[in-house]
């Protein structure tokens, strides 16, 4: 029986500073905000961001959210990996926003180039160039 799975719809992220997250995910990376809702009962924002391929990110704020454990690596989400057409162009764009990236590496299995930077809350974000 074929699977009804179609693909990734969204990734939800809890952010500490919505303005900084918008600057990173919308301005620096180039996502498009498609909706923003304030939920008074939770004192929480939910901002929906569309990526160029149609996948979405949900940016949430929650008062007093605990920090994300990352080092040593914890179970759960390791990093967010984004496909890019031109890694050099993406690096230049990120640098224009003052975002520091690691040196470019090459995937030993696919030969694709990639790098990592961090979002405003320290979540590792990988930019993976499609070969």
Can you describe this structure?
- The chain is an alpha/beta fold.
- Helix content is 16%, strand content 34%.
- The strands form 2 sheets. A 4-stranded mixed β-sheet has the order 1-4-3-2, covered by helices on one side. The protein has a 4-stranded mixed β-sheet with strand order 5-8-7-6, with no helix packed on it.
- A hairpin with a 6-residue loop joins strand 6 (105-106) and strand 7 (113-118).
Summarize the structure.
With 131 residues, this protein is of the alpha/beta class. Helix content is 16%, strand content 34%.
Please report which band the strand proportion falls in: under 5%, 5-15%, 15-25%, 25-35%, 35-45% or over 45%.
25-35%
The mean pLDDT is 92
Structural class: alpha/beta
Rg, Å, rounded: 16 Å
**Helix residue percentage:** 10-25%
Question: N-to-C SSE series?
Answer: EHEEEEHEEE
Identify the overall geometry. globular
Sheet with the most strands, sense and barrel status? 4 strands, mixed
Number of strands: 8
The total of helices stands at 2
- Strand line-up of the largest beta sheet: 1-4-3-2
Uncertain regions spanning at least 5 consecutive residues: none
Write the layout of secondary structure elements.
Layout: E1 10-14, H1 18-28, E2 32-39, E3 44-50, E4 56-60, E5 80-84, H2 87-96, E6 105-106, E7 113-118, E8 124-129
Parallel strand pairs: 1-4, 5-8
Antiparallel strand pairs: 2-3, 3-4, 6-7, 7-8
Keywords:
globular, 4-stranded mixed sheet, 34% strand, 16% helix, 2 helices, 131 residues, alpha/beta
């Amino acid at each position: 029986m074929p699977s009804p799975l179609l693909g990734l719809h969204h990734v939800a992220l809890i952010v500490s500073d919505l303005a900084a997250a918008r600057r990173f995910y919308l301005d620096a990376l180039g996502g498009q905000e498609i909706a923003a809702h304030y939920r008074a009962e939770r004192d929480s924002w939910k901002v929906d961001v569309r990526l160029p391929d149609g996948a979405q990110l949900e940016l949430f704020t929650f008062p007093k959210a605990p920090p994300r454990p990352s080092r040593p690596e914890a179970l759960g989400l390791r990093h967010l990996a984004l496909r890019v057409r031109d890694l050099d162009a993406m690096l230049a764009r990120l640098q224009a926003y003052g975002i520091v990236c690691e040196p470019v590496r090459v995937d030993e299995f696919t030969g694709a180039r990639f790098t990592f930077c961090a979002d405003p809350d320290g979540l590792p974000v990988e930019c993976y160039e499609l070969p």
